[in-house]
Write a structure and sequence with these properties.
The structure is a single chain. By secondary structure, this protein is mainly α. Helix content is 79%, strand content 0%. It has 9 helices and no strands.
Length: 340
């Protein structure tokens, strides 16, 4: 027997042993998966049962607490405080458990489980979402610049609007997945992406003509400004979030947003003029489109629909940002008065 054949047979025996180990590891892996699945179901049932008992205890305490004084009243208040904390604790626990998708995710993805089981997976998905937003925003900026200054073909404009539709649709799906995994994205900053998807879709269907050309330059300039502000926000918000997370003051799945939230009050108030200018530009777009809709040559339904969409975006963005600013100023004044 040649030395080469002997060596080959020895390698085969080694591979056979390695293959048997792989098979055993696979068997153990499937066994653990089955155990994890059973544990998840048991854990979910335990939380649901505990919630029901908490509700019953809370109702009993409310009935018994009337007229209590002294030590008993303190005990009841102590228990009520713990009961109020439990929902937040359970929400954090459930973010690592499989659960039914919401209506939107069910329509888009079906019943597939989108819950990530480890903190590392959640953080990696969040980071990938942020990189996706920045990368596509830069591409949109470049394409908008080309449409505004280099070419004026309708099919290139259509490509831009199609990219906007795809971008905002993808954002809504990714944000819904992040919410299912415990991300605390504020309601309006998610909902305004649905409106932006609808608006971009209407712009995509707007046929070329006199009215489209009248609004085209204003819309492209607005897109350039929005892209610039979004890049500015990403740069400063990501740095601020990193510092706040290191200090333990923010959640690991908190995201950069195209607006202003309470955690930005320290260090990012200089962004407010840029944001408010963008909000009023949306109002200006709406007014321009409403005026165009009154022209005798206006036959396209897209003019009025885009006008309403820009008006909704302005109202939502402006009043949400204003509410955050007013709330933070009020909180700040209360803290000052307490310190005095």
């Amino acid at each position: 027997m040649s030395s080469q054949l002997t060596q080959a047979l020895q390698e085969w025996e080694h591979l056979e042993k390695d293959f048997q180990q792989i098979q055993e590891s696979h068997r153990l892996y499937l066994q653990k998966l089955d155990e994890v699945s059973k544990m998840q179901n048991s854990f979910t049932a335990s939380i649901a049962r505990h919630r029901k008992y908490l509700k019953d205890v809370s109702q009993s305490l409310n009935k018994c607490s009337k007229g209590l004084t002294g030590e008993n009243a303190k005990k009841v208040e102590h228990v009520k405080g713990h009961i109020q904390e439990r929902p937040n604790i359970f929400s954090q626990m459930e973010s690592f458990l499989p659960k039914k998708n919401g209506i939107y995710l069910s329509l888009v993805l079906g019943s597939v489980n989108v819950n990530l089981l480890s903190k590392q997976s959640k953080a990696a998905y969040k980071d990938e979402y942020e990189k996706f937003k920045l990368g596509v925003t830069v591409i949109l900026l470049l394409l908008t610049f080309i449409c505004q200054f280099l070419v004026s073909y309708r099919f290139v404009d259509a490509l831009l609007n199609f990219l906007l539709v795809w971008y905002y649709c993808t954002l809504t799906i990714r944000e819904s997945i992040l919410i299912s995994n415990g991300s605390r994205i504020k309601g309006w900053w998610v909902f305004h992406h649905y409106i932006s998807t609808f608006l971009s879709g209407v712009m995509l269907t707007w046929p070329d003509g006199e009215l489209y050309q009248m609004f085209r330059s204003q819309f492209l300039t607005y897109c350039l400004y929005q892209g610039f502000v979004q890049c500015l926000q990403y740069y400063y918000q990501s740095g601020c979030l990193y510092r706040l997370k290191a200090l333990g003051e923010r959640h690991n799945l908190d995201l950069t947003v195209e607006g202003f939230q309470s955690w930005m009050w320290r260090g990012l108030t200089f962004l407010l003029p840029f944001l408010f200018f963008g909000h009023f530009w949306q109002l200006f777009n709406s007014v321009t489109l409403f005026r165009m809709a009154k022209l005798p040559q206006c036959k396209e339904w897209q003019v009025l629909i885009c006008g309403f969409s820009f008006l909704v975006l302005f109202a939502g963005n402006f009043f949400t940002t204003l509410a955050v600013v007013r709330h933070k100023r009020k909180t700040k004044n209360q803290e000052k008065s307490k310190s005095l």
